[in-house]
Amino acid sequence: MRVVGLPDLSSMAPEQRAETQPVFAHIRGTCKRVRGFNQFGLIELTFGILRGPHRGLHTVWIEPHVLLVQRRRSA
Question: What is the mean pLDDT of the chain?
């Protein structure tokens, strides 16, 4: 799936939003493999950030409307 937008984080506390916003911004425009779905219809994405203050392994739950199905190109 290609992440084409950012979720609405306005209901989060400012401290949480300051930590979460850069992680979502990092994956915007990239393709990620879907790891699963939850009971609310959110999609689980797991990925790593290699450098910077947010480096490490991350798991996010994201709304389907900010994702686009990306088909694999055949060789």
Answer: 91
Q: Residue 13 and residue 59: Cα distance in Å, rounded?
A: 19
Tens digit of each residue's pLDDT (9 = 90 or more) over 43-65: 999 999 999 999 999 999 999 99
Provide the whole-model pTM: 0.81
pLDDT in tens, 12-40: 999 999 999 999 999 999 999 999 999 99
Torsion over CA: 46, 51, 53, 56 (sign): positive
Contact partners, residue 30, CB within 8 Å, separation at least 6: 2, 3
Neighbours of 55 (CB within 10 A): 11
Parallel, antiparallel or unpaired: strands 67-68 and 34-37: unpaired
Residue 45: which of 34, 31, 54 has the closest Cα?
34
